[in-house]
Protein 1
Amino acid sequence: MPAAQAAPRLDDDASPGAGVKAAHRAPPHGLKRGEEETVIHKNWQELIKPNALEVIPGADPKRRARIIAEPLERGFGMTLGNALRRVLLSSLQGGAVTSIQIEGVLHEFSSIPGIREDVTDIVLNIKQLPIRMTADQPKRLHLTAAGPGEVKAGQISEVAGVEILDKDIVICTLDEDATLNMELTVESGKGYVPADRNRPEDAPIGLIPVDALFSPVKRVAYKVENTREGQILDYDKLTLEIETDGTVTPEDALAFAARILQDQLQLFINFEEPRQVEERREEEEPLFNRNFLRKVDELELSVRSANCLKNDNIVYIGDLIQKTEAEM
């Protein structure tokens, strides 16, 4: 019996990077370079993947949907579902109000004569505004209203690059003879930003910072179930339930999240994509010869030989070479 080989050991003073480079240079023991690439190639190419996503729209297709991916390899439902959920909730860009200024108000704990809601309630209502923002720089919106009646989001002035989708959101209620003059600052960002980070160093008196939730995704839930592919039952079915604020559809939000994951994971791939391994049948079989399509009349045959071939319905050279010596 051959002696067991000791596992390779890195020197104590060797850097981790040197060990990684050495591992990349030499293929595993017993494998040639071509065989190593074939094994690596199979790591991801032979895993089962869904053919297409099934999208089941909700009551409001622009805001809610169930998206199903099946079949997935065992364990990939949980892996992908958890990763996509985290990215959907934390990493998608969106627009939100980051600060407001109300005429005659010095801080967020004030009350305004003639307005039923206090400033804190007004801020909470403003945070509900679904804002689609295409501008890169902060934008300032203005709201001017007079009572009596409700003040709604549709009364906010429009500027290029900013769109408030739900114009029926009630911001406050004015009594008779009451007025409201407000300036709102809208910015783009991702995730959650607390109010203290939205206060600039040179903030004027009366500026009220607002904690901003930029993510256009309001809720994500996922479920993993067993599914089958042919006669095999050991596969995962991933169902994602996504609700957005309407500035992006659930399908697009999921696509953006997947693209973010793809971009982040690209860093960990430290090799070039190997070429598709193909069977070399073409090299084993002779190539097609165009001479087989030539007629036997083009051959310099005797009259007797030409007549024999004609009587046997042999028209092309390809017909002739198929005959055995005995048949000839």
Protein 2
Amino acid sequence: MLIANKGVPAVRPSSKEQPLPPEGSGDQPWVTVEVVILTLRAGHLEVLLVKRKEHPFLNYWSLPGGLVQRRESLEEAAARVLKERAGLEARVLPQMGRAPGRHPIYLEQLYTFGAPGRDPRARVVSVAYYALVEQSHVREIPEESALFRLQLKDEASAAEIYDAKGKKYSLAFDHAEILAVALRRIRGKLSYTPIGFELLPEQFTLRELQAVHEIILQKKLNKASFRRKMLASGLLQPTGEFEKGTGFRPAELYRFRREA
């Protein structure tokens, strides 16, 4: 598993990626990684995408990714993509968990996509990862990248992306399918793991925690029932502090008890 953290040097400097071979140049599969980078912003689940500057799918938006280099593990390749495309440093740790005093980013292997013909240039097998990024870490996005709102209308459909004005865009390759698999995985894990906390700051209110669940699940939850469940879970540690600068009664702040 991987942990990513802003400003922690850990992966070796990347070398210039080797281009894919021309179509029909050989039967040997090429291995790539694609990273689904998700964050919450202004009440929406958003994904970071990169605009393609070459064929195929010229000027289409795609997931950030790249070839796995010869002396690079899959985890190192995913960490490199996260660094180059989102400005987030990553390092490989023996197990998932936040390092003391830091707010690392959740990065997990998702699935392997290898259907013949998914890339017209060559036989390409892609190992997908997904990263959950608290919004304060997404400050400086590279010029060729942008955040798009993500929707999955039903469990059987492909994911759809929209800009802030509601304009819908098509994705390159099979990346809409990869996004759908990622969102279904996260929705499923909400019911048995504390994955929703990865999108929150170190201190948060119960209202903010419920909003994370509702945005990911795309449905409203009963306020009283949700709060009872969370408070009884043992995952919340009261900070003794309250939010400031609100126009209503300040809510108590909690932090995630990771050792629970």
Protein 3
Amino acid sequence: VLLRLRQLSLSYSWKTFAFDSTNFKGMTTKAYLNVVLVGSILLAVLMNASDARPAAFNAPSNHYNWLSSSGRLQGLECSLCKDFVALVRKALDSGESSYVPEIAKLVCIIKYKEAAQVCDGVVTLWRPIFKFAIDKVYLSPENVCGQYLGSGCSNSTIPELNYYWNVTLPSVPKPPVTPIQPPTPGARRLRVAHISDVHVDMLYKVGASADCGLPTCCRVSDGDPSTSKRRAAYWGDYNCDLPWWSLDRIFSQLNRTEKFDAIYFTGDLPDHHVWEQTREQQVDIYRNFTALLSKYFPDVAFVAALGNHESVPVNSFPPRYIKGNESMDWYYPALWEFLSPWVPSDQKENVLKGGYYTQLLYPGFRVVSLNLNYGNNLNWWILQNITDPDDQLQWLISVLQRAESNGEKVHILGHIPSSDLIKGYSWNYFKIAERYESTITGHFFGHTHHDELGVYFDPANTTRAFGTAYIVGSLKTDDNPSYRVYEVDGGYANASWQVLDYYNYIFNLTEANQAGQQRDPTWILEYQPTKDYGLRYAFPAEWAKLIDRFEQSDELFQLYIRFYHKSHLLSSQQPCTGDCKRQFICRMRNMRSGDDSIPC
């Protein structure tokens, strides 16, 4: 059957979806669908055997990033993916599209070992997106497999995916680059909090099953707790999302113990029960979240970027040319309502258009919030036109050019790190970051749930660092909850607005649950770069030197791995050496997706 699948795929003319009739002579539509069914099962089984991710990367949120950026795709997996898509396409062209959801459910169950209820819910939610892609987009095997598995499984020159589209930079010459200067002693430092990936579960139930066999647990509906080896504790569980009361108590604590000049939130507020979410739930969660912020931090500036979990279904962010029920009209107006207390009114059009905006926080200092779901390889809506959806990057250029002309410095917030975006989007973001390196003083991301470092290096001089990506760990309890506070040189005339240092805080979830609900979790300072890594300042050149030191010292690098896992012993106790270490080093040095020009 495998041989037959391969033979069939080689005989297709993908520009017309025409099939060589000699290969199908005597085959009925039902026979075609039987081959599709068998092929999908075989594909799922074989794909299941070829997931070679290093254990150090283990986190549900990073699964697709690994597939799309690691370059470790097995040839058989890629081949079978194309065969599978070819046969599904044949089923659709034969008028038997009702079979396709069942095929998708089988792949979900076998490949990803998910429960039937999960797969049924996900496929049901995604059906309109599949229909759009089938009706409107040229879905060749190269399209689908290149988009899902990464450009290593496609011919990157095919026009449909158009990986190499280019934004247009203005003709204004790039200013000469000057070294970043430390602030004068005693200069003002602002404190900026950074939280991400909260994933709060409004239906979390103490005592519910915490090992239910589903992607996330701790709800009444997640199975009989009497058969569970572990029950949901008060403050949360490593296999569940964050209880609402935990978030409330965390914010209450921070209100009493911290003083922030601004709060950055880089997305992902809803829970991981993605197979049963509704639009109403997503809107309610954001409403409750912003109300909580207003309660505890009424006078603090707040800047938010959209995560891939904000929409329903997950990863689904159609551009504005998608109209009607499938558009984002159900979400963006509500988002504007919730953000309007912090965001200037002249940004309403941008929020309603694409969920992005900019605001001047201080004289000479601007922040930009990007909707980087437009570069998410799992956002299938963008397949119809993958070139700068909703013109967001071109808009970013205009904002940065005005900032440069006005002498402003800029922080950019987004959910997905630029190295994890689809290739065209990633490379264009990098191009913008390099052109405006003297204006951008920090890139702030989340999404991976881990505490990570990324450095932007000049492709023309691969030892010169020109920017830093600050990737904060999650507040969610897949490891210990964490947040970060940056010390930023700013708030006075001619400040650099560079991050000088930061403080990364965690609380030990196990200890918090053992202490009980009457005692607030104890936040501890996990690390500080200037003290634990020996940096003078958190400048790009200093981070670049640290990466070199990681290469030379396994002991120092293991400290990074410990912080990567937010000091969660069960995750970080295994040493990361050899190939595992090399991959981490490469990830730190390469902020462009699929780029092999930076030595690592």
